[in-house]
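One record is set out below.
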Amino acid sequence: MKSYFDLIDQTFYFPTPEFRVKDDQLFFHDVDLMKIIEKYGTPLKLTYLPKISQNIQYARDIFNDAIEKHQYKGTYKFAYCTKSSHFKFVIEEALKNGAHLETSSAFDIPIIKNLYLEGKLKKDIDIICNGYKRPLYVESVAELINDGFINCMPILDNLTELDQFSTLIDKEFQVGIRVAADEEPNFSFYTSRLGIRYGDIKSHYEEKIKGTKAKLKMLHFFINTGIKDTAYYWSELSRFVYKYCEVKKVCPELDTIDIGGGFPIKNSLQFEYNYQYMADQIIENIKWICEKNHVPVPHIITEFGSFTVGESGAVIYSVLGQKLQNDKELWYMMDGSFITHLPDVWGLNNKFIMLPINKWQETFHKVNIGGLTCDSMDYYDSEAHVTEVFLPKVDEGTPLFFGFFHTGAYQEALGGYGGIQHCLIPAPKHIIIEKDERGEISTKLFADEQESETMMKVLGYTK
């Protein structure tokens, strides 16, 4: 019977830039995962920081290549969406690579201030302030602008926000307008709940912004599907650029568009996506529409969150035991929970790469993976995965370890990091992996496994 390695080798193009097998063990970005497990145990989360830098530099390269190829007269900037992962080590890695930042709530602003006081960012960084804003958010953004963050830009989400900012900001300031794009045809609603309707944008500028201390600098575009080569995406992007051209003719200060909704990340070993082609097409389409309307092309900002941080993350588990519950349903019980550790799996049906860490030369079989909570949804099977779920067979000797990869975006935020989880399953330890200039890999413990004392305090049993 074939080994697990034979299964993967014959099914996919393997090894890949991220994964290879040496001495029957999986390496992730040349990191020996078994050494990590031997040192820290399981369950554990890890973040491979160099991948964040690599993806930022790659996005910048392909857009700048497209700009040069099409002789595009505007510039490109990369912005990181903090909501994808607010951890300091993630944002610092993005800032090291010249990324700008996009915020979504009032509680992002203390992060900005902390990073500034530590010298991690300067006051001229672009800060794109999105979201429907409660009073504290408005006050916090206004405070940044009054304090000299000259490129901090509130993105107006409704027709009343501008009055709030104008009251609090004591100098000339830049604003953007988020456009309420149409949702994907199969979505529950026709138009996004966020942003200002297409028909109201020009009149809002002429009646409320023109001639005031607010200067309309940017139009902001976001669709939930991200940047995909579909008729829906190109139709919505073209409609947005035509609106930019219309407003640009009456608003000379408008010179930038933000095309939010990011690049996809690899969710399987058979993932295919031509990033350079998409960047080329975006630049070419924007240039063509602007030339047709006789207006200068805009500068471009992209907001990439999952693409920035997603592929840097992994979660590693061990198999605690196996259970054959009927003639054909074999369960591997793991030392963690999908509901608490990987909420994207059960809540949003997101797909991740799943591979064993050891036992690649063992035979394999189809399995279901069960989490530790008592919830019936705490499982992983062929419907959750991209294909059938196969793992090597387990025995009484060496335990089987396996991992979910490219899990770096949103999991901690959606799962409630550091709080109370379903069935009081603790948050796993978190390891940061870095690489120095010589290519030497080092690891450090960012957070240990959550302890009962912290849960007792949150629940009010102790002080």
Observations:
- The domain at 4-41+311-458 is CATH 2.40.37.10 (Lyase, Ornithine Decarboxylase; Chain A, domain 1).
- The longest helix spans residues 49-69.
